[in-house]
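It is worth pausing here to work through a concrete case rather than discussing structure prediction in the abstract. The textbook approach is simple: state the sequence, then state the predicted structure, then interpret. We follow exactly that order.
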Amino acid sequence: MADTKTDGRRARGERSREAILGRAVALASVHGLDGLTLGRLAEAAGVSKSGFFAHWRDKEQLQLDAVDWASRQWTERIVEPALRAPAGVRRLLALHEARLAFYADRVLPGGCFFFVAQVEFDDRPGPVRDRIAQAMSRWLGFIERQAAEAVTLGELTPGTDAAQLAYEIEALGEAAVIHARLLSHDLAYTRARRAVLHRLRSLATDPSLLPEEPA
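Step two, the predicted structure:
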């Protein structure tokens, strides 16, 4: 009986921790990781301050855990859906489209956790900056591997620079975040999708694998 009660408490504690991290990532997408004040986060997550301290004793660990939680969310909402597309140029486009859908659906109130985090910590050495850089490096490396596989499959022209193509796709995704919030929401996503589609079709050995470019 004691073990059952202990397991129940652990499960509730884990659910509480996950709920707090979800709210932390949402808040950080607007206010940044430094904006995760105890009062603001406790109120947003609906927990007491004492309940908060049961999970985190310092702000830096909370920030590190928030980066990890945001990475898992990115994988679940963007990477995993895109992996259902056939390997090659179609998967590259699916990755970009899944990212744009994540933004367009307003999953996070600030649009993109990682965009805000990198701007906030790019010149602040320390564990949080390192964790953000690792997450971004994994993402960029994943795009590059998909591009390299497309070359190997013969769907991108021989000699295509996979690293350069990954950089361009990432840059267009980041641009969509800013333009959608400051300029035109719908137009930003339309242009970001069109730009990557155009780039992929120009490099594809068989452009018919991809949708036609809009007029």
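Step three, interpretation. DSSP finds nine helices and no strands in the chain. The CA atoms of residues 51 and 210 lie 51 Å apart.
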